[in-house]
Amino acid sequence: MRRAVLEWGRFILIWGVCVLSFRAFAFGSYYVPSESMLPTLAVGDHFIAAKYAYGYSRHSPDITLPEGFIPTADGRLLSHLPQRGDIVVLKPEGAPEALVKRVIGLPGDTVQLAHGRLVLNGQVIGRHETGAYDYRDDHGRTVHVTEYVEDLPATDGSLARHAVLQRSDEGPADNTGVYTVPAGHVFLMGDNRDNSQDSRFPYPDLGFVPLDRVIARAQFTAYTNHFCKAESDLTCPGGDWSTRFGRSLKP
């Protein structure tokens, strides 16, 4: 009897170590808490992200490790720089939960918003309108938006095309100064441009994000608790609940 208990205990311990290692170093599951990534991700979407994509830092496990735990110059192992257009998971300083945003600027890039248009390294990024509609937000309010596809240049020479929403081209964060992304940091934004606290807003909101706090690259949606149904004259941004399963999140 004692031997059987010990065998079961060893099995449970090994299984637990394997699960924790998988979550820490391979893939993680995350929940979308806000509308900042509409129409790509909606409140209630659960998605899978690759933790190995950019290497590992002390923030990669579910529990942040002590400072200096990884003794490298940049605090990362197997470090890889994200591409513009990647949707990433980050652990911002002072925030209790991980956030999800899109990479817009890399170290050395300049980023600006001018009349709602993204200006990257002095070039206005192309976009084309795909429609205007009303939707009911997470607080029950009706919001009017215009949806565009933006042609963000990825670092490999391709275009990381993705949808963005604009309520207006003259909102509070639609005309900014020029941001120069410092070394070891990235500039992140939400796809719902007029409803996103992102790198346009300095710390303690978000500001430039250190690379060691970028912990994973979003891969695909797994399932959703977002049960939006199109109403008369109202749309579900990005589609209703039935279209949100297994959706690729790569640009």
Q: What can you see in these coordinates?
A:
This is Signal peptidase I. The protein has one domain (28-248): Umud Fragment, subunit A, CATH 2.10.109.10. It has 251 residues and is mainly beta. A hairpin with an 8-residue loop joins β5 (87-90) and β6. The strands form four sheets. Strands 1-2-16-5-6-14-15 form a seven-stranded antiparallel sheet. A four-stranded antiparallel sheet has the order 9-8-7-13, with no helix packed on it. Strands 10-11-12 form a three-stranded antiparallel sheet, with no helix packed on it. The chain has one helix and 16 strands. It is globular, with a radius of gyration of 20 Å.
The total of helices stands at 1
Strand content is 25-35%
Largest sheet: 7 strands, antiparallel
Order of helices and strands: HEEEEEEEEEEEEEEEE
The outline comes out as: globular
State the distance separating the first and last CA atoms.
55 Å
Rg measurement, Å = 20 Å
The fourth-level CATH homologous superfamily is: Umud Fragment, subunit A
CATH fold-type name: Umud Fragment, subunit A
CATH architecture label: Ribbon
Question: Order of strands across the widest beta sheet?
Answer: 1-2-16-5-6-14-15
**CATH top level?**
Mainly Beta
| Portion in helices | under 10%
Tell me the structural class: mainly beta
Low-confidence stretches: 13-22
Mean pLDDT comes to 88
Strand segment tally: 16
GO molecular function, one term: serine-type endopeptidase activity
Active site: 36, 101
Organism: Nitrospirillum viridazoti CBAmc
Domain Peptidase S26: 6-221
